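Q: Predict the assembly, please.
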Amino acid sequence: MVIGVLGAGTMGAGIAQLAAQNGHKVILVDKQEVQLKKAKDQLALILLKLIDKHKITSEKANEIQSAITYSTELSAFSSCGIIIEAILEQLDVKHSAFEQLEKVVSKECILASNTSSLSIASIGGALQKADRVLGIHFFNPAPLMPLVEVIPAVQTNVSFLEQAVSLMKSWDKTVVVCKDTPGFIVNRVARPFYGEALRIYEEGIADFATIDWAMTEIGGFKMGPFTLMDYIGNDVNYAVTTSIFEAFYYDPRFKPSFTQKRHSEAGFFGRKSGRGYFDYSEGAIIPTPVKDYELGQQIVDRILAMLINEAYDAVFMQVATAEAVDLAMTKGVNYPKGLIQWSKEIGTKEILSRLEKLFADYGEDRYRPNPLLRKEVLH
Ligand code: NAI
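A: Predicted assembly structure:
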């Protein structure tokens, strides 16, 4: 099958590489010639590194390179069996792209979006034949991250969904199918990792370095929340949080934080701007955490209880199965354990009592325990 990729930025270039590595002919289209050139040059560098590391032969590298055709014209997509769109995260821009795409492809061509935050149904709204619209959400970098969330919209025909799932499996991806709801699985369930960490900071319980130390040293996470937000970019992370908060009709569980807003407003985006929660300039003093294990454990217990509550909510609201939620968090964002499994190891009763205490102490709806977690405890 010929694979079309629209948008040759970070994600599109990665998806094109992945498809070519899996033996497909790929058409990569971007409206900017300069982006296509950048994608091509970057791929050449990546392939050279892979040859150096003996991961691929130079013949395979040549095959991958020659499998990709670069174009600025949508008409280049005419022979594709699927198009994966990875352009600007803006509904009007995606609508106009999907309208144009439909004019150049066959009726059986799947039209997929790599959107992180927009509804697939709303993207499909631009199509005449919307039963072939889907979300195929990759994680950055697409060739390396094992997880793919596949999202059928209310309009999607099941046969297109099955085709997309088997295509992703043939690329050795771990596939989780989930409902077309804000943030899908990963970007929804992971919110408290950032939000509760920020809240703990705002209450003056601990500083950034201490919270990060607790979550890595005691919690076993690969990266602390503040280091991770500095990697993602505070502007990007704040925008995702805000869009999820709005999409959930302002549910206080997803309320954004002033601290992140202020950091973003100040241009403290993180690594890319040289300063975020931490200072990345040369010679900057690295803050030392307060290595108080009792405090650290309290921080981990609180953030973990909130993450687990969110994982139960995703299952409760039928976004995905418990197995899919656990797979998504371990394969998409490298959590040390699946959250549902983790809750059983700690004891669901213990998690419920942590949440009930938070709810009683603060009286905020944000801390309400999920009904499915409560049910689990009663069983
Ligand atoms: P990017 O800004 O790196 O690349 C976007 C590309 O699309 C640019 O090359 C731009 O020239 C091109 N473009 C914009 N409008 C176009 C149009 N109408 N026609 C053709 N080309 C057009 O963006 P990035 O980060 O690759 O994100 C793309 C999509 O993937 C977004 O929907 C984003 O939410 C989603 N996504 C991003 C992830 C990330 O970590 N960056 C992870 C998963 C999803």
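The chain has two domains: 3-177, 187-378. The mean pLDDT is 97.
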